[in-house]
C-alpha cells in the first residue's frame, strides 16, 4: 500500500512539474492528451481580441484580404499569415465595394470631406451626423469632417482604410470605408506602401 502511495506521489510531482499529463495512464485511467490553442496577441491590444499581429520581423511586402461576411482583415507577407484584425465596413445603405484594389495614397492625419459634424457660430455641435453639401449649416456655422487617422485610399471616390471605432466587432458600421482599431491601423500604415494590394470579398 505504501508503495502504491509512493508511486502516486511521484507521478503527481512529475505531472505538475511538466505542466502536462504524462504519457502513461494513472492507476488504470485512460491516457489524456491536452492540446492548448496558440494565439499570439499584441502586447498593446486595447480590446483583445480585436486583432493579432506577429509580422514585425517578417520580411516582404504586405497584402490584405478583407472578408465582409466576417468583418475581418487577414494580413500576409510573402504569402505567410502575419495576423488578422476586426474591421468595420459599410452598412447596407453605404456598401463597401468588393474586388482587388491597391493603396493609392497614404495620409497620417486626414479628415473626411464628406461626413462629419456641423457646428454653429459658437462652436457648439448641432448635427453630429452631417453630410457635406446635404446637411444645413446655420449662419456663421461650419462643417467639420470626421477624423480618419492613418488614411490609406483605395478608390477615387473616397473609400479607404483608416483608424476608427469598431462598436460591434463582427458587424458593419461605416459609410463604406474600412475602419481599423487604432493600434492596428498604425501598424498597417507603417508596413504598407502605395501599391499594397488589398482584396475585398463577401
Radius of gyration (Å)? 25 Å
Count of helical stretches: 2
Strand order of the largest sheet: 1-4-3-2-13-5
Topology as a string of helices (H) and strands (E): HEEEEEEEEEEEEHE
Q: Span from first to last CA?
A: 65 Å
Number of domains as seen in the coordinates: 1
CATH architecture: Beta Barrel
Helix content: 10-25%
How would the global form be characterised?
elongated
Q: What percent strand?
A: 25-35%
Main sheet characteristics: 6 strands, mixed
Q: What's the CATH superfamily, by name?
A: L,D-transpeptidase catalytic domain-like
Query: What class would the helix/strand composition place it in?
Result: alpha+beta
Mean pLDDT: 83
Total beta strand runs:
13
Low-confidence stretches: 6-45
